[in-house]
Amino acid sequence: MNNDRRALLKTAAMAAAGSMVAGATLPVLQADQAVDGLPTGEGLEWNKAPCRFCGTGCHVQVGVENGRVVAVAGDKAADVNKGLLCVKGYHVGGILYGKDRLTRPLLRKDGKLTEISWDEAIETIAQRIFDSPDTFAFYGSGQWTIPEGYAAQKFMKGGLSNNHIDPNARLCMASAVTGFLATYGVDEPAGCYQDLDECDVLITWGNNPAEMHPVLFSRVTDRRSRGEQVRIIDIGTRRTRTTDAANDYLEMKPHGDVAISLGIMHLLIENDNYDQSFVEKHCNFRGDEADTPTLQGEPISEEEFRQRIAKYTPEHVEELSGVPADKIRMLADLFGQHDIRITSLWCMGMNQHTMGTAINSLVHGVHLLSGHFGRPGDAPTSLTGQPSACGTVREVGTLAHALPGGRVVTKPEHREQSEGFWNVREGSISEVPGYHTVKMFEQFTKPTAAGGDITTMFVQVTNPGQTLPNLNTLFNDKQGLEDKFLIVSDVYPTATTALADLILPAAMWVEKNGMFGNSERRTQQWFKMVDPPGEARDDCWMTIAIAHKLFEMGHEGMKDKDGEFIFAVKDDAGQEIPVWEFDRYYDTNVDKHLFEEYRQFTTMKHKNLAPYEEYVKARGLRWPVVEQEDGSWRETKFRFSGFDDPFVKAGEEFEFYHSSSSDGRAQIWFHEYQPPPEMPDEEYPMWLCTGRVLEHWHTGTMTRRVSQLSRAMPTAYVEMHLEDAQAANIRQGEIVTIESRRGVCDLPVWIDGRGRPPRGTIFVPFFDETKLINNCTLEAYDPFSKQPDYKKCAARVVKKTTAKVPS
Amino acid sequence: MPISGLVVTFASSVEEHISTIESITNIPEIDLGQACGSKLAIVVDSETKTRDQEIWNAVRDLPGVIDLAVAMVAFDEDTEEEPSTRN
Ligand code: SF4
User: What single string gives the DSSP state of each residue in A492-513?
Assistant: First the structure.
């Protein structure tokens, strides 16, 4: 960098930081002012993109010079982050430039990875699918852009008539989806991030936003630094950085959240402190069917609800959860105050739970019963860990049972509508749900002769070799199964590519066009800014190229009803653009074509999206986005609330217009507390909990390539309580072996570190591919969401070597 | 050799954290910028990535600092990262 450029950038950095502190509140500028204050000239250009990492959806300005990303600035025009970024966002540009980027397709021949051409790679995949379309599975991601996920969904369900498509989001937010569906009849939070600016009380349920959604959390701590009162109540199984900022910390036993929510509802009813008017007007009560419980449940009377919940007295809840009875009373008293605003936040801690659907529904129930719903600051809100878990997985519906826009494969009218939008022949979509993630990998890693009926799997934009639970069963068993074929598209070598038969080098983030949907229903768009390295190519192109190869081979499913290619894109003159040829892929904006096609699906469940061009202008828009009389498009912040949601009937204060009971009401559920699937015992006396750290994003595939982040958090570790460590004569830094009934993992011990687990509990982050803690975790899953429980299983800590770092 | 514009947030008003600000001033690679309420703008211009990391960690761990956020970062060709252990 020359000195002039350095001086210029330094001035710009000072201006950018200065503007963040000026005034009492953080600025939100008009979109077209966003690049003001950022240096231009000498070829440096800025363009907007959402951050590549967590589901917060911060927007950044990306500075590009000579075909390379050279700077990143928080986007002042972005309402989500108001110009700020966390340490990961700060390094988001660096993730493109790891030295070991995958740049050529690699095929395993005689055990060795050999470079092949893209033509050979696409042909190999198409041939395997052509030969056995029913035993092919597509495993994707909440990191898929909306067009990528939509293309994969159409390819599988509309083209191949095969529903074996599921995403890694099954592992992180599936229970949130089922919780929303069971409660409101439609998925995704009603509130938005503005709730964090307006609440009086913030309750974090097994959630650590200080590390996992830091920019969101800073919106809350910022309020305090401006002298506003906001009380933070942290309910968790271990102390975290969020606890450090909390006014109250309620330490619960694993599964204690279920008992706590039941206890709050018990007291609200017992003390006649619930919001009778809200409940009478807007809610029903629901319980599990005795025989085969469903998401619909069965209606129960308020009286029946009272009877079922009667046993969850504060004392009984204390016994089940470990949280003192007076703290349960404190929570119930808070929810009993109608003049304050309460926001609940949760993420993986509540979703990765064998009672995941139940606890999600119960927390919604606490808010509904107390009437803490639908006013700014009063909201039950689930966050997502991935940038497009909402936009791509939940909205496009890239799940084994789903179709776009909230449809499901089991409903004939939904299949018919989807076939209509896709112009594919009647009956193309199979009515049988495909395999959910755990089942999909069970079937892939089981020998074909033993009934393992998935033989080819295509993994895009994710790393299941590190993230699946019980890796020894669900992933590592793939080794040696000669007839199983694993195709992995990624940007770097990973634990998954280590067992891949074919590796495809992928373009990432601003090397391609994209759209993400964040945790607050905000759809965001960006354009390609730089070329990918070597022969790396867009994931969406890969799907289209495979589809076209199948079309050429005569696969009927790849033709629409008019005999045309199902992904045909035409120019203004009606000529087809050969987008399956990579050098023609950017002759048009394929994202825009796919998005406009997908938009048709979004009105059934009132998840209306605006035209693509509106997202080009904005820093995202929260759906439903509805056209106004003057032709402009208006987003919705508070769904189901008459003052903001255009779909609520005129004059109604609230309307749950997708109510599963078809009467405009939300459901308040009762679920009986059940103990965790595996509990510590004599042999395995500790609770093992897994999770994340601030510096690394999920498996660390990207963030471990950024040396600053990697140095800041170089290795996974096991957090232990000092007394547990002393009792076992284990010292700070000593390497120990974590053992469970499923596997082992060696880790250094961290005592009194950033997270502080209570006695009897250990915590291990899963970002480190050299220490695969998921060899130990349990694949037991929630019966509704099929989401596994990574947060609690039985384990033991075994001394391995003598202490390396004296305590 | 990254250059970054950062925002330090203190637990209370900036004036109440004189000794921490002194510690920040003692880091030669840091220039102080505007302060308002509990927020202080700084720019870090360091020679190496290691030093940048050290400074980031040092500031984040100073007494009274509750948050460190980024307003802008610029980096250049020297930011190519180390290969993974799986190569
Ligand atoms: S909070 Fe999430 S989206 Fe925002 S900068 Fe950090 S990692 Fe990116």
Answer: S--TTGGG-SEEEEB--GGGS-
